[in-house]
Amino acid sequence: MEYPVRPALAQAVPVIPHGPGWWYEPKFDGHRTILRRTEDTVILYARSGRVVTSHWMDLAVAGMGLPTGTTLDGEAVIWRDGKVNFTAAQSRAASSITRARALAAQHPASYAVWDVLEHPDRGQTTGLPYTERRRLLLDLLHDIPPPIQAVPATDDHAVAVAWYEGLQEQGIEGIVCKKGTAGYPLGRRGWTKVRHADTEDALVVGYLGPRRRPHRIALAIGDEGGPARLSARLDPVLAGRIAEALTAAEVLGERRAEGEAYTRVESDLVVEVLAGSGRHGTLTVTRMR
To answer: What residues pair up with 92 in beta bridges, in sequence order?
Structure first.
């Protein structure tokens, strides 16, 4: 395995696909995290590849119970009042290390795991079919206690629909759909997802206006390899939260997008945008991810 891992991504679709070979998992609303158990320690990576072990130290400690040579893909989530609380997870991910430790003491995290990328006995498993990786994952976590747990999975379309319709109140934001015969699509949108809101994720790659209160942000949409797009003007409250999350982001200089200059930054901040663009191609940011 090469690290940091390029995690698999999912393409938004309007309905849950139906047919032979499909498997379904609830989509947890948290912070995408790769967990790697080395011989000496545990390393946690954000979706961008940035090391975030210090922000999720409670999960790193729990991960020490895994055998050496294990790499997992999943979501760091925080449960509050019986439901997954995305705001709590985002606050932890965007906070200082000192603040993250304080938040961990108040609201410990859980790690909802859906894939094994490296197995202590089988080595790299990304080329194996989903069904085989799922079996290895369940065997691997059989004796591992919470907060590390495998997400539920089913090949029954009716069950997936019931999850989609019945689990939203618990903070489950939709369903991820995977082909049972497919390998792990490193860095590609090889999965599909159906969410309750018609939005998609975008990586924040820059901002317009003052850093402490940006007017708009530059976004990488889809495969994140194309040109940046600019958001519509931000809601003032959301602008303040985004500014706080970008406090530690490295400035890479000035770039241009859609004829306007913006400040380019290196960050792992992901926001949700309305799937349809507004006038002049701008995108409406709905919330931080």
So the answer is: none
Task: Residue 243: name the closest of 275, 208, 274, 219 by CA.
Answer: 208
- Predicted confidence at residue 277, as pLDDT, reads 39
Catalytic residue of the set 27, 178, 179, 193: 27
Asked if the peptide bond before residue 4 counts as cis, ω within 30 degrees of 0, the response is: yes
**Contact of 252 with 218, CB cutoff 8 Å:** no
Q: Encode pLDDT of 112-141 as tens digits.
A: 999 999 999 999 999 999 999 999 999 999
- In the annotation, is 193 catalytic? no
Beta strand pairing status for 110-119 and 148-150? parallel
- Nearby residues of 231 by Cβ (< 8 Å), 6 or more positions away: 216, 217, 218, 219, 273, 282, 283, 284, 285
The Cα 257–Cα 72 span in angstroms is: 36
pTM: 0.76
